[in-house]
From TrEMBL:
Role of this protein: Catalyzes the condensation of carbamoyl phosphate and aspartate to form carbamoyl aspartate and inorganic phosphate, the committed step in the de novo pyrimidine nucleotide biosynthesis pathway.
Source taxon at top rank: Bacteria
Lineage start: Bacteria, Pseudomonadati, Pseudomonadota, Gammaproteobacteria, Pseudomonadales
Protein source organism: Marinobacter albus
UniProt: L-aspartate binding residues: K100, R185, R240
Domain Aspartate/ornithine carbamoyltransferase Asp/Orn-binding: 171-318
UniProt name for this protein: Aspartate carbamoyltransferase
Catalytic activity: carbamoyl phosphate + L-aspartate = N-carbamoyl-L-aspartate + phosphate + H(+)
Membership in a protein family: Belongs to the aspartate/ornithine carbamoyltransferase superfamily. ATCase family.
Pathway, per record: Pyrimidine metabolism; UMP biosynthesis via de novo pathway; (S)-dihydroorotate from bicarbonate: step 2/3
Annotated EC: 2.1.3.2
Enzyme class: transferase
Domain Aspartate/ornithine carbamoyltransferase carbamoyl-P binding, first and last residues per copy: 20-165
Assembly: Heterododecamer (2C3:3R2) of six catalytic PyrB chains organized as two trimers (C3), and six regulatory PyrI chains organized as three dimers (R2).
Residues given in the record as carbamoyl phosphate binding sites: R72, T73, R122, H152, Q155, G281, P282
Length: 337
């Protein structure tokens, strides 16, 4: 499976530009990304209430389909759906019929037959959520929770919300993404979001073996030297070494990687004094980040996790709204014909 269409907006947007699936940030404009951030902002207060619920998805069924492991994304999608009052089904792939040889398409047909309204999909194959969105019953929304090396759009949006909360703006910011960009769906979605939202510079800092070919074409500058790369930064985003996706020896050793590219207090001191430190998780202490930095005053790593709930509430409610609007448009056209 591949994500062949670089701008799949015929799939993820309604004719009047509302979200109906959320597959990638490619092709989405600043107004829509800002709408997601503003909607997420409005949901933050829900998480601070005693009764953390709004009725926007009451009576709807959300199915979490995670074909790859996850802690943060899966649990925050589940919490987000529950805070929107949806019924949530977490399919355990290891005990489901897919482990007995049932195809993905047949599993989905069975779940659609249970009148599901939304599938949240994580898959090791790039393009899997796109493939599902192309074939799913009209009215069912597909949300990408991370596919292969391709995209992790809700992660990028919760990162953007965190940056906006701490910096108050995107204009003028210098942001670096450090480490294993080659295998990172998160980095691809972040680079896209940062460019659309108008930061001054997106810089990737990594050894050449951990950068995709023509990485600059994604919309970033490249720095191989960490000390030079840290200069003037407002935001530094560390990435995990994704060993599960590495083929062959791309690094001399973890110890060498940490010496050259690990974020410690000395390297952080080279950035702006109010530079924030981010990481999508899971973090590997002593591999890409020092504990004193991960737990230090400039770290916003746990704010990112909290913001994941509000961003996922925003995306799920907007996609369901788009599906409803589309169905109403079709019904009114049918009545006129
Ligand atoms: N950031 C992220 O996708 O983490 P999980 O793999 O735990 O969901």
């Amino acid at each position: 499976m591949t994500a062949n269409d670089p701008s799949p907006n015929h799939l993820q947007l309604t004719r009047d530009g509302q979200l109906r699936h959320f597959l990638t940030l490619d092709g989405l404009d600043r107004a829509l990304l800002t709408d997601i951030l503003d909607t997420a902002d409005s949901f933050i207060e829900v998480g601070e209430r005693t009764i953390k619920k709004v009725p926007l998805l009451r009576g709807r069924t959300v199915v979490n389909l995670f074909f790859e492991s996850s802690t943060r994304t899966r649990s925050t999608f589940e919490l987000a759906a529950k805070r929107l009052s949806a019924d949530v089904l977490n399919l355990d792939i290891s005990t489901s019929a897919t482990s007995k040889g049932e195809s993905l398409s047949d599993t989905l047909l069975n779940l659609e037959a249970m009148a599901s309204d939304m599938f949240v999909v994580r898959h090791s194959q790039s393009g899997a959520p796109h493939f599902i969105a192309e074939s799913v019953t009209p009215g069912v929304a597909i949300i990408n929770a991370g596919d292969g090396r391709h995209a992790h759009p809700t992660q990028a949006m919760l990162d953007m919300l965190t940056i906006r909360q701490h910096k108050g703006r995107f204009e003028g910011l210098k942001v670096a993404i450090v480490g294993d960009v080659l295998h990172s769906r998160v980095a691809r979605s972040q680079i896209r979001a940062l460019n659309v939202l108008g930061v001054d510079e997106v810089r990737v800092i990594a050894p050449g073996t951990l950068l995709p070919k023509d990485v600059e074409s994604l919309g970033c500058t490249v720095e191989y030297d960490m000390a030079r790369g840290m200069k003037d930064l407002d935001v530094v985003i560390m990435l995990r070494l994704q060993k599960e996706r590495m083929e062959g020896a791309l690094l001399p050793s973890e110890r060498e990687f940490y010496r050259l590219y690990g974020l410690n207090q000395d390297k952080l001191a080279l950035a702006q004094p109010d530079c924030i430190v981010m990481h999508p998780g899971p973090i590997n202490r002593g591999v890409e980040i020092e504990s004193a930095v991960a737990d230090g005053p400039q770290s916003v790593i746990l704010n990112q996790v909290t913001n994941g709930i509000a961003v996922r509430m925003a995306v799920m409610s907007m996609a369901m709204g788009g599906q409803v609007a589309e169905r109403q448009q079709k019904q009114s056209k049918g009545a006129q014909a």
